[in-house]
Design a protein that fits this description.
alpha+beta, elongated, 6-stranded antiparallel β-sheet, 137 residues, 3 helices
């Protein structure tokens, strides 16, 4: 997924403020199923039937800030499932500018319903595992 860096994304020195990378990573996770070609809306409707009131929440995140991005840079946010478990998914995310790796993150996302961890509905788990197979992680 491509992201252009705007003035609002930068700090006083003209580089991307570290917390704004979290927004870029969030967009990458949100778009992940769509980028896999999965029917985003139908998968979530099926999940809603199985687990009303569900949500994905970030359980943990490890981020390496390697190089800065600057205003007007075009960045690529790559997201792929690293591990798909019953109630959580660990995603490997990378933000690059051309061939340069700027940020690398490992994000564990838990599936919750009514405030408690629950098994991920089968349709979503299958779509995520398919993505894992495509990426080969």
């Amino acid at each position: 997924m491509s992201v252009r860096v705007y003035y609002e994304d930068t700090d006083f020195s003209g580089i991307v403020y570290h917390a704004n990378y979290l927004r870029f990573l969030e967009r990458g996770r949100t778009n992940h199923l769509r980028l896999l070609g999965a029917g985003h809306r139908s998968l979530f409707e099926e999940a809603r039937q199985e687990a009303p009131g569900f949500a994905f929440v970030v359980r943990s995140m490890q981020i390496e800030f390697l190089k800065p991005a600057r205003m007007d840079d075009v960045l690529e946010v790559m997201t792929g499932p690293q591990q798909v478990k019953g109630a959580s998914i660990t995603l490997h995310q990378r933000i690059t500018r051309g061939d340069e790796l700027l940020v690398e993150a490992h994000v564990r996302v838990a599936f919750v319903c009514a405030g408690r961890a629950r098994p991920i509905p089968k349709a979503l788990r299958t779509a995520m595992r398919a993505g894992q197979d495509l990426i080969g992680t």
